[in-house]
Amino acid sequence: MSSRFHVDVARARTPEASFYTDADGYAREVGRVFGKSWQLVRAPEMDDVADFDPTRIQLEPVRVESRGPLLFVTLDTHIPSVPEYFPHLAADCAPYGVEKMRYVTSRTYPVNANWKVYVDNFLEGYHIPLVHPALNRELDYRRDVTTLREHHVMQFCLIREHGAEHYRTSPGGPPAGYFWLYPNMMLNHE
Ligand SMILES: [Fe+2]
Where are the domains of the chain? Predict the structure, then answer.
């Protein structure tokens, strides 16, 4: 699904930025009114500000695409859509039922590392026996199947038939799947 929204964007490199930003660096938006064509028509307490021109300020379009609980947002409406940029992603993810997934919770793990190192770690499996011995008893990384797509990598990891306790797949269900979407998004289903 694709939708269009508009947001107030404080452009840091334009003269108007000083009127948006207070002493703490936070954008001030309270009370401002935008009219037709998303044009600013009222800005409280800005009447006496020199060179403040509301006709130069308008809300910017934002394109939002959704895939189940995932939202893909861009301020640049001229870039390719998700299916254009990832032409095989929908078909590759189809076995996992992404469209039926629902948001449950969020966790944040700050990692002080170059993001490319993290991607490499995400996709290679030879560290698993050394770093994740318990996981290694469940997944057979030597049978990983990695497929390079146009802008994403798809990796399947097969679960050992004997000894697996935590990563049992339902009969007939898809294997553990690891998807890396260029440049910095990873999807994982186990
Ligand atoms: Fe790991």
Answer: 2-74, 82-189
